[in-house]
Amino acid sequence: MDFNPAYKNRIKRFFRFFLKYTYPTLYRLELKHTHLDYIQSKTIGSKISPKANISGPAQINDSEIGDYTYISINSRILSTKIGKFCSIGPNFFCGWGVHPTNTLSTSPAFYSLKNQAGITFSKTDKVIENLPIEIGNDVFIGMNVTVLDGVKIGNGAIIGAGAIVSKDIPPYAVAVGSPIQIIKYRFEPTIIEKLLKIKWWDFEEKDLQNVEAFLFDIEGFITKHDKS
Questions:
Q1: Transmembrane region positions (predicted)?
Q2: Which residues neighbour 157 within 8 Å (Cβ) at sequence distance 6 or greater?
Q3: Torsion angles phi and psi, residue 175, rounded to 5
Q4: pLDDT digits (tens, 9 = 90+) for 3-50
């Protein structure tokens, strides 16, 4: 018999309650293994390419993740569109909402119906709490990075480990730190312009061998594929 998830959770809670007061030793042993509940990835309202690779634990809500992108362990992603061929390190936090700063209180108990504080005194949602985030294609993001709501990260950009991305990052920029700073660009402007026109990340899979073949010969790759 295939039980629905809510019924399964009720059975699990009853089982733990029974163990706790009847067989406390077994209860402690069972708790030791409940971490399995938390290392599983949870996805709600999201579109994830079957060619993407998500390492658990991860929580992905209302987001989109493109082909060949990998996301490392312990990621929390909300309201974010992530392109193709992105490489995202562990402990990635993205899109966890905003608090108003020009109000009497910053607590969502006074402006939100989501009950984040366990109670709400508001009859309506008074502010927009989540702004969409866009991460382009072929973006490399190091470990322990936080991306704030409403930010756009361009194609080919690199975000250094530990950064807090609080503003838009242009294509092929290398940005680090908190506050985030652009320290350089990966290529000269003319090369960046041509790569953005070629859009190799949209190649058919059979043509992606061209990227591998010219991996260290960017000018050769542009010569072969630039139609302008």
A1: none
A2: 136, 139, 140, 169, 170, 171, 172, 173, 174, 175
A3: -125, 140
A4: 455 555 566 566 666 656 665 555 455 444 444 444 456 888 999 999
Q: pTM of this prediction?
A: 0.79
Asked whether the beta carbons of 81 and 94 are under 8 A apart, the reply is: no
How deeply is 13 buried, as exposed, middle or buried, from its count of CB atoms within 10 A (0-12, 13-18, 19+)?
exposed
What's the order of all strands across the beta sheet hosting 181-185?
Answer: 53-54, 70-71, 87-88, 140-141, 158-159, 173-176, 181-185
Average pLDDT across each block of 10 residues of the chain; the chain has 228 residues. List them in order.
52 61 55 46 89 91 96 94 97 90 92 90 91 97 96 98 97 96 98 97 95 96 88
Q: Is 99 one of the annotated active-site residues of the chain?
A: yes
Amino acid type, 57: P
Distance of CA 115 to the CA centre of its chain: 24
